[in-house]
Amino acid sequence: MEWQMKVVAQKDLDRELRPFLTARRVHRPSGGWLRAVRKALGLSAAAMAKDLKVSPSAVFQMEDAARAMSCQLVYAIVPYQGNFEGQAIEFVKRYLWRQKAARKRKRKLALAMAAVEKSEGQQGSPLAKQRIRKLVEAIREKVKEEEGAR
Predict the structure, then answer these.
(1) Cα–Cα distance measured from residue 112 to residue 120, given in angstroms and rounded to the nearest whole number
(2) Assessment of whether the complete model's pTM goes beyond 0.70
(3) Cβ atoms 57, 14 nearer than 8 A
(4) What total of structural domains would you count in the chain?
(5) Of the N and C termini of the chain, which has fewer Cβ atoms inside 10 Å?
(6) By residue range, what is the domain housing residue 137?
(7) CA separation (Å) from 108 to 2, 36, 141?
(8) Which 3 state secondary structure label does DSSP give 45?
(9) d(CA 32, CA 53)
């Protein structure tokens, strides 16, 4: 009776694992999927292990456990929504938007700086001139910060 229960359990497991069994036929990257995805996302193994609160060898230990059971570890890491290409496109869109916004800010700062420098040569009270000099200096610092951030 015990062996019959094992057979039923194995059939149930096979039925549930059917989608994963077909995944065995998919070409696996030489370093494995985890490494391929990690590198594509620009993560170091140490950073990933730290985030997961495991040692860097923990993934390989899972693979060894599968081999000990005469199984092949078949896994996939997929984005929560969409696909990796879609994520890359969104990343590029955000990057381009940030660049455009930075150029726009820089133009505004340059125009403001030009207006302030122009007004500095005009007549006015010493206090007003001092305020203008401080404003010019603040604008120059802001421009330097933005150029340094790139």
Answers:
(1) 12
(2) no
(3) no
(4) 2
(5) N
(6) 93-149
(7) 79, 43, 14
(8) helix
(9) 20
* The domain boundary residue, chosen from 35, 55, 83: 83
Are 74 and 63 in contact by the 8 Å Cβ rule? The answer is no
Alpha-carbon distance 48 to 35, whole Å?
A: 10
Residue labelled with tokens 């896994």: 75
* Domain end call among 25, 55, 83: 83
- Return per-residue pLDDT of the chain as tens, 150 residues: 676 777 788 778 777 877 776 776 777 777 777 778 888 888 888 888 888 898 888 867 776 776 788 776 676 665 666 666 677 777 788 888 988 988 888 888 777 777 766 765 666 677 777 777 777 778 778 777 777 765
Based on the domain organization, do 79 and 140 belong to the same domain?
no
Q: Give the list of residues 6+ apart from residue 90 with CB closer than 8 angstroms, or none.
A: none
